[in-house]
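User: quick one, sequence for these tokens?
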């Protein structure tokens, strides 16, 4: 309380003291004798001075005045007395005339040519012009001859506190990370004051917060704004509106003030883990779904934003880890579950997975608040789909002898409906693969029969396609290739490769080879051909020729 009373008294008396100091030099001015000082009783020496010496001594005498000041913004019923010009040559006989020239002479400042009194005729503003340079001269009123050399002097405009501080760069916007410790730098503001920063406290500024506590503080003299409350959470409140005041006169009573606003936004840090919207997800998918097709999405929400909210998904447990996969949607941050391998309702009707969402970017400052991940359970039900028939073999190979009887069964194909409903199957031959209609098939049991005789020597292989169709849904069709190999039987006699005509000289010797013959056979026995050669019956008894196998 005593300190506050002292401040109040200082605020009250300071302007009065300044005014007294300013006006007093104008009201009372002590003459300053700059003439040569002579010792007393030296009248004899004085008489010896020549006129030239007296003129010289006169020029050594100078103007007499104090430094002049005028208070800015002063206005009253009469012009304000700034000061008085005086020379020690003036005996008071009104023979000296004072002349004023320079900045504002005759308009702003007017001089009484008899007394030397200078008055300010207008209200002055220090912020517009802080000082005026003028020239004073004393002349003989009768002859207008200079009595002294001109002398230049300055009238300074004394400052008063007539300008409030201003924040020329406001309003301000600043950011600071959430969860910052107390004393973290936020920003710095600056106010300017047009008053004189040297004279008095008119431009001495002190900063304070009018709105924004207890969250932020400001250093009174540097205007640095800092956090004042620990662990401010962006997810609870993101933006703060702070009002800053700058007050001159060192912040004392009577000082002028100006304000500005600072909008402070808390930037995000990764201080929140992802959290699944639900702990259990249910999805269903038909068994005929295409590989890579998404079957469902899961979502782990994160209160953070931007990079701090990004999560990656993974399947960490379950009986379908090799059947399903999960990826992250970069746009929505969803986890997308897809099929990796074919599903079969008849083999396995459901799967249970445990999925995990984990933050991609972890802030080590908040690792103790972890773990920055969450898990959820996903149950997937496989639904039955109407599947086409399935043959017992992907291909069939049948063999039949070329002499097989027409309508004889040469083989059989089988197929079944894998669905629970198990529709009956009908079989048929794709006639585009059997244009000569060489074969038939029993539509009920899939037995393939011979429709026309076979000839291995004409066609050794027949490739046909068998079609299996569900009777309950004709759109469910399957096809299987059937290769039929025709086996050889000995149904062709050997033939000579060519006709032969042999010649023998009359002097031929017994045992001489006169011709080699060869035979061919259209059949294809497993062990190759073996031919027996002999002469025709009518030549058997001819003693001149014989035939034997060429070993």
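Assistant:
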């Amino acid at each position: 309380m005593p300190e506050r009373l002292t401040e109040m008294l200082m605020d009250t008396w300071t302007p009065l003291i300044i005014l007294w100091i300013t006006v007093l030099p104008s009201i009372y001015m002590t003459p300053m004798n700059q003439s040569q000082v002579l010792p007393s009783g030296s009248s004899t020496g004085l008489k010896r001075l020549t006129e030239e010496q007296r003129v010289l001594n006169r020029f050594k005498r100078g103007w007499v005045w104090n430094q002049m000041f005028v208070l800015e913004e002063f206005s009253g019923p009469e012009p304000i007395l700034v000061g008085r010009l005086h020379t020690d040559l003036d005996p008071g006989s009104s023979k000296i005339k004072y002349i004023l020239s320079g900045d504002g002479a005759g308009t702003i400042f007017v001089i009484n040519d008899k007394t030397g009194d200078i008055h300010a005729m207008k209200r002055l503003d220090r912020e517009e012009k802080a000082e005026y340079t003028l020239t004073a001269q004393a002349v003989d009123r009768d002859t207008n001859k200079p009595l002294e050399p001109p002398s230049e002097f300055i009238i300074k405009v004394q400052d008063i506190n007539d300008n409030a501080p201003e924040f020329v760069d406001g309003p301000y916007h600043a950011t600071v990370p959430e969860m910052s410790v107390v004393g973290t730098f936020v920003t710095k503001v600056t106010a300017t004051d047009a008053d004189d920063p040297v004279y008095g406290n008119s431009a001495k500024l002190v900063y304070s917060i009018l709105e924004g506590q207890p969250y932020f503080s400001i250093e009174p003299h540097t205007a640095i704004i800092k956090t004042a409350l620990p662990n401010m959470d962006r997810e609870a409140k993101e933006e703060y509106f702070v009002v800053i005041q700058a007050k001159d006169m060192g912040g004392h009573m009577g000082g002028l003030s100006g304000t500005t606003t600072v909008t402070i936004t808390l930037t995000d840090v990764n201080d929140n883990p992802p959290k699944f919207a639900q702990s259990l997800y249910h999805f269903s998918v038909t068994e005929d779904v295409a590989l890579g097709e998404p079957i469902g999405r899961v979502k782990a929400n994160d209160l953070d934003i931007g990079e701090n909210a990004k999560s990656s998904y993974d399947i960490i447990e379950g009986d379908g880890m090799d059947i399903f996969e999960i990826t992250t949607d970069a746009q929505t941050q969803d986890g997308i579950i897809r099929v990796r391998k074919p599903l079969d309702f008849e083999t396995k009707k459901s799967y249970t997975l445990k999925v995990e969402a984990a933050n991609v970017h972890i802030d080590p400052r908040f690792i103790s608040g972890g773990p920055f991940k969450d898990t959820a359970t996903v149950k997937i039900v496989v639904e039955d789909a109407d599947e086409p028939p399935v043959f017992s073999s992907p291909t069939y190979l049948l063999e039949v002898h070329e002499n097989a009887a027409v309508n004889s069964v040469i083989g059989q194909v089988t197929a079944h409906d894998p669905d629970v409903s198990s529709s009956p199957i009908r079989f048929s031959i794709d006639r585009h693969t059997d244009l000569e209609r060489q074969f038939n098939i029993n539509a009920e049991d899939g037995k393939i029969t011979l429709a026309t005789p076979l000839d291995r020597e004409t066609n050794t292989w027949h490739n046909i396609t068998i079609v299996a169709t569900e009777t309950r849904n004709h759109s469910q069709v399957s096809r299987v290739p059937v290769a039929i190999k025709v086996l050889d039987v000995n149904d062709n006699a050997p033939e000579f490769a060519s006709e032969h005509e042999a010649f023998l000289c009359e002097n031929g010797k017994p045992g001489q080879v006169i011709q080699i013959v060869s035979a061919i056979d259209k059949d294809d026995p497993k062990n190759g051909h073996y031919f027996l050669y002999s002469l025709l019956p009518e030549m058997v008894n001819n003693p001149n020729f014989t035939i034997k196998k060429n070993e």
